[in-house]
Amino acid sequence: MIYLDNAATSFPKAPGVADTVSRFITDIGANAGRSSYSTARQSSRIIYQTRKLLAKLLNTDNSSNICFTMNTTQALNIALKGIVKPGFKVLTSPFEHNSVMRPLRQLESQMNISLDFIKIIDYDIDWQHLLFQLEQKPDLLILTAASNVNGYLLPYNKIARMAHKYDIPVILDAAQVLGSNPVDAADFDIICFPGHKGLLGPMGTGGLYVSEEIELLSLMPGGTGSRSSTEYQPDEMPDLLEGGTPNLPGLAGLQVSLQFILDTGIDAIAARKLQLTSQLLQELANIDDIIIHSPIDPNLQAGVVSFTSLRYSISDLAWELDKADIACRMGMHCAPAAHKQLGTYEQGGTLRLSPGYFNTAAEIDSAVKLLKDLHK
Amino acid sequence: MNLQIVITFHSTHSAMAAEDIFKELKLDFELIPTPREISAECGFALLVRGLDTAKIKLICNKNQIKYDNIYLIKFTDGGKEYEKSN
Question: CA gyration radius for chain A?
């Protein structure tokens, strides 16, 4: 198979991940943080070391403020529902995934919060209008770093810096960038991320970094192995947000993939992804009747290509790719807001190809050849 | 000298962080089940041999190790007591 659906989840995983997950289940298998026997100690160390590697990636010494979740959606829900209060004014972007929009819409109806959207026209932020919006003192800014629909890389650092000038806390949805683009903990109040996308780890892993200044409520209080004599959730991080047994096999795998990423370097990973993405964009641009819905400028790209065809429906195109054993995703990509912004909502979305670090130029050529042949 | 100190922690993360530092400093220590006589808070604690409480505190503070309490083990006839450090 030619796998071009890395925006959904990366495949294959980093070398050693699968073996490590398997070995954890067969050879270790103990819960972490509860006991002191040898395999329990190993489990506790796996979690600790994984947190430390994430802290290195996020350029912070504060690894205790990184909490594990099963995915970005859970992290975003913990962040939003732990911080938002009734009547909050929330500023966000028009490119958000439903992992942001659905919790926001829920909070809109349950807590009467109001939403405002940053104006973006043709991948240009309306900075003047953003200043005006920030002057209205929203209570929170939540922002995706890059669109999962078309790879548009938002100027998330610059926007966060502007928001901080107005003392507005910033939550970053780093789902599409962590592992290939720099994300510095010092620039954000909360960073939510998956372990299974750019970090090349197993599904069922993710997390959030929470700065010292932010106090979150625990959404899922439960057993932590610490402060066991009390029926109340500990208020120390990371235990505050980590009730229950974690996905230890997954975290063992994530430890290996994080080490791979740190050893390889995010610049090298980004360069490979961008090279393949540029190749794909250039080739698709030469096919008559294919309309590209992604930024062409590599500086605005996180490695996701969306397109439609004037000759075929996206479902027929996806079917052809399926038959050729090329993995893609078509439709709304769980991001109706982004499709509305791109003008592709009414037609049912786009077809998306998202290269990963392990793809090759030859694989991109094969996908392009199929699309070229179909459009002859 | 047969000094033995037990350090308890609020969280596993803090205990692991302490373990990391103690390893680096080549201290004589091990992870043990937290003695029930002193705490029921966390499943395990660190036992350190050969250093007194003042030195342990210094190391913890210098390395920003967040601990709960420090206890000196006092061996008595047929048993032991845990003296909490202030």
Answer: 21
A36/B44 Cβ within 8 A: yes
Say if the Cβ atoms of A225 and B12 lie within 8 Å.
yes
Contact, A11 vs A363, CB < 8 A? no
User: Residue A55 in contact with residue A62, Cβ under 8 Å?
Assistant: yes
**For residue B6, is it within any domain?**
no
* Residue B83 forms contact with A (CB below 8 Å): no
Q: What is the pTM of this model?
A: 0.95
Residues A109-135 pLDDT 10s: 999 999 999 999 999 999 999 999 999
Instruction: Please check whether residue B67 lies inside any domain of the structure.
Output: yes
**Percentage of chain B modeled with pLDDT above 70:** 99
Compute the distance between CA of residue A363 and CA of residue A1 in angstroms, rounded to an integer: 9
Tell me which DSSP letter residue A354 carries: B
Q: Which of A51, A228, A238 sits opposite B40 (nearest CB)?
A: A228
Multiple choice CATH, A17-264, 3.40.50.700, 1.10.357.140, 3.40.640.10, 3.30.870.10: 3.40.640.10
Select from A52, A60, A227 the residue whose CB has the most chain B CBs within 10 Å, as the one to mutate to test that interface.
Answer: A227
Q: Which residue of A has its CA nearest to B40?
A: A229
State how far Cα B12 lies from the chain centre.
Answer: 13
Fold adopted by A2-10+265-374: Aspartate Aminotransferase, domain 1 (3.90.1150)
Q: Given a cut of 90, is residue A254 above it in pLDDT?
A: yes
What is the structure's pLDDT at B28?
96
Every domain of chain A and the residues it spans: 2-10+265-374, 17-264
Assign residue B50 a region (left: φ > 0; alpha: ψ between -120 and 50; beta: otherwise).
Answer: left
Cβ–Cβ below 8 Å for B17 and A64: yes
pLDDT (mean) for B51-72:
94
For B13, phi and psi rounded to 5 degrees?
A: -55, -45
Residue with tokens 């450090």: B85
Q: How far is B10 from chain A (nearest CA, A)?
A: 6
Domain count, chain B: 1
Best mutation target among B9, B11, B30 (most A Cβ atoms within 10 Å) is B11
- Are B43 and A35 a contacting pair at CB < 8 A? yes
According to the model, what pLDDT value does residue B41 have? 78
Instruction: Decide if B73 touches A, using CB distance below 8 A.
Output: no
State the pLDDT at residue B86. Answer: 76
| Phi, psi torsion values for A330, nearest 5 degrees | -120, 160
B40 contacts A33? CB cut-off 8 A:
no
Is the Cβ pair B32, A226 closer than 8 Å? no
Question: For residue B36, is it within any domain?
Answer: yes
**Residue-range definition of the domain harbouring residue B75:** 13-84
